[in-house]
Each structure stands twice: as structure tokens, then as C-alpha cells.
Amino acid sequence: MSSSKRRRRWLIALGVVAGLVVISAFATRTPSPVGHWDGAEGRDRFMAAYDRAFQDLPAVADAVDVRTDYGVVRFYRFAGSGEASAPLVLLPGRSSGSPVWADNMPSLLEVGDVYTVDLLGEPGRSVQDRPIVDDADQAAWLHQALAGLPEERFHLVGLSIGGWSAANLAIRQPDLVASLTLVDAVFVFDDLPLGTIVRSIPAAMPWLPKSWRDGFNSYTAGGAPVEDVPVARMIEAGMQHYQLRLPQPTRITEEQLAALDVPVLALIAGRSVMHDPEVAVATAERTLPAAAVRVYPEASHAINGEYPDQIAADIAEFLGGRA
């Protein structure tokens, strides 16, 4: 793979990590109970970057807005060539949206039909209009959104905080979940390291220079450069201009993991800074004996952009008879 292509894949993956550390979000709280923009100019800056980054995705078969009790959730449907009867639903990381999956889409569409979703309460084209106050609310809006799609069940593929969202749903309301693929999920197999929390605090301060946010994103992506690329500009704009009003996720317990009644594939980055990889692997192997646990030794937390084809191949193998 050429260095320029690898760099692009790293940058596409930055939606995994941008603004991930939820503790820092409370430093910029305002009285509004729902996520919102700091003004029209900031929203316009993000949306322009979002639209530019979206151009790297394949042709969209349909854009679907689903009304939930917590707001309107935006999905994009992509027609795949694979034979999976249940579509994949891709859940991105924090402070990002559908464009972060651009490099993953060609190989995932060979598995089956794909939906991407902009998480509710995050910068993107989903619009929160009611407070989300706890983990139960997080599961409720996602369940309602999936129930508004025409299919009956879904293979959830969750990246970083999207992995936590998928697991949280499967624990609380699993009836629509055919399987889980957790891609270096946070708050699932280990806690967030203190060093990462400390490094995230300056990145969460919107009045600080762009370089502080870029620096944190580069740290989580294994030191990859993050400037002057459409997806990176989108993520940075979301971090600066969108005010999150989401609860801090509760670490999923080992008892909850062991009680999951759906097939699980855990993909863990060997160089992730969002948990201790050795601890995460041990937890996954201990609590999910029926699950496939795959370690990508050289991957950073930006794993989805670094290894898109391998991830798709692992998902295809995992689904196997479930297709």
C-alpha cells in the first residue's frame, strides 16, 4: 500500500476518536439539555466539511430519516453485492458520522447491504430534540431508529463509542440485533486510560487552537498526520462547534458481556490508547467464550481506516452461516 493511501485511510478513520473522551465534554456545558451547535457559522463550517467528505462514499441508494422519541436519526442505505440477508449497520465514533466509513465501504458492500448512521446527539445530520440522560435512553433511541427501517434484524458494526452503543443495545433490547462486531470498542472490555483522559482535556476546549484538537486526534491514531484532509476537517469542526449533551457511558460489566445472547466478533487494536489492549483481549476471551476475538497487533485506535479490507474479511467469515 502506498504511503499516501495509508495516510488517507488513517485520516478517514479519525471519526473513531475525535472528541471521544466524554469527561471533557462537561467542561463546556451550557444550559441547553440537548446537543447543539455554537452558532450558524459553526454549523455551516461543519456541514460544508461533511458534504465534502461524503463525496468519498459510494453512491447512496437511499437517505432515511427515522423519527424517535429523542429526535430524528439519519441513515444512509447502500446496496451491496453480497448475500447477507440482514444488512450491516455501521455505528461511527464520537464527533463523527457516516463519512468516516468511506474506505470501508467497498469491501463491506461485498458482504451485503449496508446502512450508515449519524449517531443521535453527535455532530451530523441526525437531530436531537429530547434529552438523553442515561444508558437506557441510549439504547432506546437506537432501538426505535432501527425499528423504523424496513428490515427485521441487523448486523451491528460499532466503531469505538459506536461499539459501546451497539453492545449497550444488545444488552438491553436485543430483539433487532442479529450479531455484533465491536471494532476497538471503548468502555466495553476495559476502562479509558488516565493518560488518554488527560490528553483529551485541551482538545475539548473549543476556544483553543485547532492544533490542540489535531494533536489529540493524531495521538489516538498512532501519530498519523491529521491536517488538511476532508474527513479530518469535518471531525475537527464538529469537536469545536458542536456541544455534546450526552451522558458518560457506563462501563459494560463482565456479567453483562457474559449474558449476551447474540454472536459477537471483537476486533482489538494492539496499539490502541483507548484501553489497555492486553486487558481488553483478556476480558473479551474470558467473558465471551463463544465469540471470535481478533487482535490486530500493529493497529492503532484508527483501526478501521488502517485495515478496512481485513476487517471486512473477518466480518464475512464471522457471519458465515448467519448470512
Automatic annotation (TrEMBL):
A Gene Ontology molecular function term of the record: monoacylglycerol lipase activity
Pfam families in UniProt: Abhydrolase_6 (PF12697)
SUPFAM superfamilies assigned to the protein according to its UniProt record, in alphabetical order: alpha/beta-Hydrolases
Gene Ontology biological process: acylglycerol catabolic process
Domain AB hydrolase-1: 88-313
One term under GO cellular component: membrane
Name of the featured protein: Pimeloyl-ACP methyl ester carboxylesterase
Annotated organism of origin: Saccharopolyspora kobensis
